[in-house]
Amino acid sequence: MALDPAFSAAPGAQGVTTPVVATCTRDCPSACGLLAYVREGRVVKLTGNPAHPVNRGTACRKTPGFLRRMTSDKRVTTPLRRVAGQWTPVSWDDALDEMAERLKDCVARHGPESILYYMGFGERTALKIVNARFFAHLGGVTTLRGTLCGGTGYAAQGLDYGPRVSHDPLDLQNARTIVLWGRNPVATQFGLMPHLRAARERGASIVLIDPRQSESAALADLLVQPRPGRDAFLALAVAKRIIEAGWEDRTFLETRADNLAGYLALLARWSMDELVAACDVPLAVVAALAEAYAQGKPTATMLGWGLHRFTLGHEMVRAVDALGAVSGNIGLAGGGVSQGFEEWGPYDPELWGEGLHPPRRKLLMPQIGREILEAKDPPVEMAVITAANPVCMAPNADLVAKALDCVPFVVHMNLFLDDTAEHADLFLPCAAFYEQRDLVASFGHNYVGPLVRAVDPPGQCRSQFDIFMDLGRRFPFAGEYIKTEEEWLRLLIRPLLEKGVAWDDLWKGPVRIPDAPMVPWADGKFDTPTGRFQLLTEVTACEDCRDAARYPFTLLTVGPVGHLCSEREPGYDSGPLEIAMASEAATRLGIADGSPAKLVSPLGELVVTVRHDETSRADVVSCGRGGWLSHGQGVNRLIPDLVSAVGQGTPYYEARVDVERLS
Ligand SMILES: Nc1nc2c(c(=O)[nH]1)N[C@H]1C(S)=C(S)[C@@H](COP(=O)(O)OP(=O)(O)OC[C@H]3O[C@@H](n4cnc5c(=O)[nH]c(N)nc54)[C@H](O)[C@@H]3O)O[C@H]1N2
Ligand SMILES: Nc1nc2c(c(=O)[nH]1)N[C@H]1C(S)=C(S)[C@@H](COP(=O)(O)OP(=O)(O)OC[C@H]3O[C@@H](n4cnc5c(=O)[nH]c(N)nc54)[C@H](O)[C@@H]3O)O[C@H]1N2
Ligand SMILES: [Mo]
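That is the input. Now the predicted structure with MGD docked in place:
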């Protein structure tokens, strides 16, 4: 592969090797194909891999930040043990001996369920399954149920289609209209850009549905800014309009779908005026959307993660699925209501190890703080946290911190001393990304990409895989557990090898999962009990049960452009958290642009800087998620730990706040 000319022309570029094919492991649906340029044992540049069929050479604005973070001198490079409150370097042998002793002691004295394995979203690569298997060998420890990420959408689409299956992003080339519904690819999935740009160039139109004018508004021909959490009413309004105009796909509705009468009754329950008022979208915009769905076909709807973050998120997702059905876009090339892909799907599910023991205790991730505190018989005696920063990223952050403080021994495996590290007793420094060999599947497309060890990890950092193999040596199940990376990877991807993928090809570049459909449900058959699409029949009436008078704003804590979740480094350049609010609302409260204010929720308050935003709805304030508590930006301290009604997701966007002037 040729060198990037811009790079090879750079001064001092001698010694640069041919770029190494890599795959981005950051927690993002793009899982982009990348090229890592190595000089003198360091990666000096990351670019998009032009040979990747999805991101096609593009790389997002975060990519240079990933490189800075990987090469940061703030990375922890030796294991650390907290001694009398201070972090003290220890050898790997001492660290793992102690960890093994404590694990054995917990199993012997309180049973395996006294150990909590908290696996986060930091890297969802194939070998991470082998890490989880370690805890299954221990006899089945306490693990997690539910999710901080996409559980609600997954479960909601499961009710409609059978399993959630999405259109291959390459099928966007067949769309005449693309609707980005609660999704912000310019910030959160830049790897889609080649397809969105190509769509625009060939005259397809793009609609953005988001209470905020997100970064993706720049792509959109039509911007729809509904009241947060009311998308179900918007979808019903659009469907009602389509039916009023006689544009519905009667054949699909009558032969491929169940519950038509119930769904029509649901549409009849509210007048158009009531629906329009509930979602706060003008009738003319509803009409334009109806036309886009029914007359601008094929219409591809890309649901984001924005809709999940509500208690009744499943109704929102299901109402949009139903709109896809009414407008005849389900099973249609260039159409579909797509949401995500199974990042663990390509691997042998048996290897998680659940079969090694009877079902064990699982704590609810969205309420992890109180779940830990309330765990009895046995209480949580030890927690092992990998690829996560729950004190920063889970809701009700102070309670999560308090819960970890109540756990006698906490092991944190990460790269940096972050908010969670402050509540840990042992820190194990991990290799990540291109410092390790692994395979990467995606929750945004159908390709599996390689990671080879492009460079050595800094200092004594070790890949999680190495750490768990070394730990495993200390246990009686070592004989079964200890295998080489290659042995485990071959076992993990057995399903792919059986589908005809060649092992060697996996290491050359992205490989498509052979049986992943381009267009799901094209034959009109669904994997539901009746084989038909399931129209929803219930949407909860929308009285606002939240305390709108005391807390008048909905707080949207969205994916910021510049970084991914809490992946920053200690000491990052920070002032108070910036929140965007409508100029009119801020002015009414006497808060000038750029001035400090208090963001207040029932859980607490945070000093923030207010930015006036002409484009914001008056009932919303928004900010980026992932600021650290230690940097005064811990917005999750204000967010209640609720759980969604379906799918055990985390309704972050139910958070209601007030903004108060600081004198
Ligand atoms: N740069 C960057 N990239 C990321 C991340 C990041 O933090 N930063 N996070 C990664 C992760 S973990 C994930 S899961 C994905 C998420 O990817 P996305 O789903 O694209 O991103 P979000 O910011 O979570 O939410 C998308 C949009 O939903 C909007 N929204 C909020 N409420 C509503 C509503 O009621 N209705 C509608 N229609 N829209 C609403 C928000 O304003 C936001 O713009 O992105 C990944 N990529
Ligand atoms: N307010 C608010 N909070 C949210 C959300 C929201 O919308 N609003 N969205 C939620 C979403 S979508 C998600 S997915 C969660 C994310 O929740 P978490 O996964 O807990 O948070 P991240 O900040 O992604 O932390 C990932 C960590 O993994 C580490 N890491 C990276 N690679 C490796 C590795 O190979 N090994 C190890 N051991 N560590 C590694 C990184 O340094 C980082 O600290 O946050 C949720 N939090
Ligand atoms: Mo996520």
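Residues 27-28, 62, 149, 181-184, 187-188, 209-212, 214, 226, 228-229, 231, 304-307, 556, 558-561, 564-565, 625-626, 653 surround MGD (ligand 1) (CB under 6 Å).
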